[in-house]
């Protein structure tokens, strides 16, 4: 397992001098700091070099690493860890994700995709027939399912521990008499836990229209038992408009 293998002096070199899929029966890579070294000071290698390569949050900028220097340096983990994180936060996220992956065997599902932008727009959802690998400690469960030469997998993580997020596709069809402005939120309830509210859409809300969002939830809810629907039009409207949901569909990425 390569935890953000080094970029300076290694990227673009022969396979003999850097980590490569020829080094073991199964090589999995987590890329967390793969922006170009100049001018972005990326410490991690960018190209796919393993049997499977994970690019959490796109592989360049990790959420939670943009905090201001003071709050980061006097973080909960203490001054030493805070200082180190301030200097190389993106780079060091790789081992923190790996640590959390040991505790969450079903977390960090990586979706095969051509790019992070396509992943974000939902084009690579749900998992293909052979399933998705889990980034980190349990990636080797995917070993027998590798079909192509270089496989890139994308996923999102939280800003702080615990890092894993579970992706859901939520589709809401609205019902009502007239269109209104505002936003629609949903919360998922399930056999294994509940999520907080996540925004599906905002702007003009039209009855009979269908809105879709990809939600990265902080909980794996298990079997969905209930969906809470909430809308708000942000200001006081004397006509007291009503809006409901005629259908809500929830799809989990795994199955």
TrEMBL record:
It is a peripheral membrane protein. Keywords: Cell projection, Cytoplasmic vesicle, Disulfide bond, Hydrolase, Lipid degradation, Lipid metabolism, Secreted. GO terms for molecular function: galactolipase activity; lipoprotein lipase activity. It catalyses: 1-beta-D-galactosyl-2,3-didodecanoyl-sn-glycerol + H2O = 1-beta-D-galactosyl-dodecanoyl-sn-glycerol + dodecanoate + H(+); a 1,2-diacyl-3-O-[alpha-D-galactosyl-(1->6)-beta-D-galactosyl]-sn-glycerol + H2O = acyl-3-O-[alpha-D-galactosyl-(1->6)-beta-D-galactosyl]-sn-glycerol + a fatty acid + H(+); long chain 1,2-diacyl-3-O-beta-D-galactosyl-sn-glycerol + H2O = long chain acyl-3-O-beta-D-galactosyl-sn-glycerol + a fatty acid + H(+); 1,2,3-tripropanoylglycerol + H2O = dipropanoylglycerol + propanoate + H(+). Pathway: Glycolipid metabolism; Glycerolipid metabolism; triacylglycerol degradation. GO terms for cellular component: extracellular space; neuron projection; zymogen granule membrane. Its EC number is 3.1.1.26. It is found in: Cell projection, Neuron projection; Secreted; Zymogen granule membrane. Residues 166-255 form the PLAT domain. Gene3D superfamilies: alpha/beta hydrolase, PLAT/LH2 domain. The keyword DNA damage does not apply. GO terms for biological process: lipid catabolic process. It is an enzyme of class 3 (hydrolase). SUPFAM superfamilies: alpha/beta-Hydrolases (SSF53474), Lipase/lipooxygenase domain (PLAT/LH2 domain) (SSF49723). Pfam families: Lipase, PLAT. Belongs to the AB hydrolase superfamily. Lipase family. This is Pancreatic lipase-related protein 2. It comes from Manacus vitellinus. The lineage of its organism: Eukaryota, Metazoa, Chordata, Craniata, Vertebrata.
């Amino acid at each position: 397992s390569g935890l953000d293998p080094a970029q300076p002096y290694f990227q673009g070199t022969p396979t003999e001098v850097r980590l490569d899929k020829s080094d073991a029966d199964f090589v999995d890579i987590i890329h967390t700091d793969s922006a170009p070294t100049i001018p972005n000071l990326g410490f991690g290698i960018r190209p796919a070099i393993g049997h499977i390569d994970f690019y959490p949050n796109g592989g360049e900028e990790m959420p939670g690493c943009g905090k201001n220097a003071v709050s980061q340096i006097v973080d909960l983990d203490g001054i030493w860890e805070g200082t180190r994180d301030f200097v190389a936060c993106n780079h060091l996220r790789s081992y923190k994700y790996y640590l959390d992956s040991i505790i969450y065997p079903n977390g960090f599902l990586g979706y095969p995709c051509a790019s992070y932008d396509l992943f974000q727009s939902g084009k690579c959802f749900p998992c293909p027939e052979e399933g998705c690998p889990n980034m980190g400690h349990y990636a080797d469960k995917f070993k027998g399912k590798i079909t192509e030469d270089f496989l890139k997998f994308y996923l999102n993580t939280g800003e702080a521990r615990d890092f894993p997020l579970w992706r859901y596709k939520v589709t809401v069809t609205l019902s009502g008499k007239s269109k209104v402005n505002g936003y629609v939120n949903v919360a998922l309830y399930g056999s294994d836990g509940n999520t907080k509210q996540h925004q599906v859409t905002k702007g003009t809300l039209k009855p009979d229209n269908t809105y879709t969002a990809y939600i990265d939830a902080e909980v794996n809810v298990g079997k969905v038992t209930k969906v809470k629907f909430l809308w708000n039009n942000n200001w006081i409207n004397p006509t007291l408009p009503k809006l409901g949901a005629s259908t809500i569909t929830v799809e989990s990425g795994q199955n």
